[in-house]
UniProtKB/TrEMBL annotation:
Protein name according to UniProt: Protein prenyltransferase alpha subunit
UniProt entry keywords in alphabetical sequence: Prenyltransferase, Repeat, Transferase
Highest taxon listed in the record's lineage: Eukaryota
InterPro entries associated with the record: Prenyl_trans_a
Taxonomy of the source species: Eukaryota, Viridiplantae, Streptophyta, Embryophyta, Tracheophyta
MF terms (GO), sorted A to Z: CAAX-protein geranylgeranyltransferase activity; protein farnesyltransferase activity
GO cellular component, one term: CAAX-protein geranylgeranyltransferase complex
PANTHER family for this protein: PROTEIN FARNESYLTRANSFERASE ALPHA SUBUNIT/RAB GERANYLGERANYL TRANSFERASE ALPHA SUBUNIT, PROTEIN PRENYLYLTRANSFERASE SUPERFAMILY PROTEIN
Organism per entry: Arabidopsis thaliana x Arabidopsis arenosa
Family stated for the protein in its record: Belongs to the protein prenyltransferase subunit alpha family.
Pfam families with a match to the protein in the record: PPTA
Length: 418
């Protein structure tokens, strides 16, 4: 019945209010409630108060700050939550007039202000439908009038709870960025919040593979990091990246951190980062990347990362000893250090082009990625092409081009100047 449906919504909101430390939410098939009871060792199921305690009346499961919602009520519960939220939001926009019980029908108003009602009902809606933009905008409208840091940290907690069930929700990640901007503008940005945000993305990355929205959020956080925190993040994320070599998002994050280091080299005054330290970090990243390339054969993400490392190594460390940032398109002047570096890269190309007589496609992929990498590097710096020809010889150069032509002819046409 309609009255019963709204009762379930009130019960849902009661569960949320009774356990403010809930840190994970999920949707559960009704048949799984008994199994959860057995694993927990006790019954932690909320029943509809209007129905007897039986299997069909089970709606919610809550224990150890974990909340399960029965899948058989999701559609109606979400519909009712949106309906009540929209009515409450209309009341709020009318400057908090008294609640109109005839409009809300069987869902009686709690003895709270329209603002409280909007926040309560929008929370219920977003836990069921995380990309409902009107609810997020309503919360922004109310939070923008707050001047307590606790209100924004609580909002981070709620959005984190929503991400536990919807880790790829673009609206939720966007809302977190809005919260951090507000905190930064009004209270300054506590570095502990940035650290926790970075850790949140990493933990979500473990459960939600190839989560580009989460990693984009982590890259966005870099702009709020001091250089010391950037170095810490590089060290902390290294192990994770080494265990997830096929996930390009993590390496993209490392590139963003390293770009922050490059930016800090040309800061005026005493805040500039020491170039010798930056050079050491870059060299260690290059060596580590080479180890991964040789250990994990055929992983394109590693070769893409090497493009970034090699080009910036040559521009910023091998051929530019001044304190002035290099101009875009500035000609590369070949020197001994560049020659040694390119010679080592050619040796890496030669070893990667060796395809054993096996059925594993990874070796063919390794040869392709190596060839594309070297061709890309010479396209960025035409001065290197003659060196590649001299080191490899005409036949091996033809072999490299042939490998690319067989697998990616359009790419070869794009990279080679006919």
């Amino acid at each position: 019945s309609e009255e019963g449906c709204f009762t379930v919504l009130k019960l849902f909101e009661h569960v949320l209010e009774s356990d403010p430390l809930i840190d994970e939410v999920g949707f559960i098939h009704p048949s799984q409630f008994n199994l959860l009871d057995e694993e927990a060792g006790s019954s932690s199921v909320y029943q509809n108060e209007l129905q007897p305690n039986n299997e069909t009346s089970r709606k919610f499961w809550n224990q150890d700050h974990k909340l399960g919602i029965s899948t058989d009520i999701l559609v109606q519960l979400c519909k009712d939550a949106k309906h009540v939220f929209l009515l409450a939001f209309e009341e709020y926009k009318r400057h908090g007039n008294a609640c109109n019980e005839s409009q809300i029908e069987n869902f009686s108003c709690s003895p709270g202000t329209p603002e409280i009602e909007v926040m309560r009902h929008s929370q219920a809606v977003l836990l069921l439908s995380s990309d409902f933009g009107t609810a997020w905008n309503a919360r922004k409208l109310i939070l923008s009038k707050k001047d307590q840091l606790s209100a924004f940290t609580e909002e981070l907690r709620l959005s984190g709870l929503i991400l536990s069930n919807s880790p790829k929700s673009e609206s939720t990640w966007s809302h977190r960025r809005w919260i951090i901007k507000m905190i930064s503008q009004r209270f300054s940005t506590p570095q502990v919040i940035i650290t926790k945000e970075s850790e949140l993305v990493e933990s979500i990355g473990e459960r939600s593979k190839m989560n580009y929205r989460a990693w984009y959020h982590r890259c966005w956080l870099v702009s709020y990091m001091a250089i010391e925190q950037v170095i810490q993040e590089l060290n902390k994320s290294k192990r994770w990246a080494g265990l997830h070599v096929a996930d390009s998002s993590c390496f993209h994050y490392r590139r963003r951190l390293m770009l922050k280091i490059l930016e800090s080299l040309y800061v005026k005054g005493g805040n500039a980062y020491d170039k010798s330290e930056a050079r050491k970090i870059w060299k260690e990243e290059l060596d580590w990347n080479k180890e991964l390339v040789e250990r994990y054969v055929g992983r394109e993400a590693l070769w893409l990362h090497r493009r970034f490392l090699s080009l910036n190594w040559i521009i910023y460390f091998a051929c530019n000893d001044s304190d002035v940032s290099p101009e875009p398109g500035e000609s590369i002047i070949m020197n001994e250090e560049i020659a040694i570096f390119i010679d080592n890269e050619i040796h890496l190309l030669e070893s990667s082009m060796t395809v054993p007589d096996t059925k594993f496609e990874d070796f063919q992929a390794q040869a392709l990625h190596a060839g594309v990498y070297m061709l890309w590097l010479t396209k960025k710096m035409p001065e290197l092409w003659r060196m590649v020809e001299e080191k490899l010889g005409t036949e091996k150069v033809k072999c490299v081009l042939s490998t690319i032509a067989q697998e990616r002819p359009s790419l070869l046409h794009h990279l080679v100047n006919v």
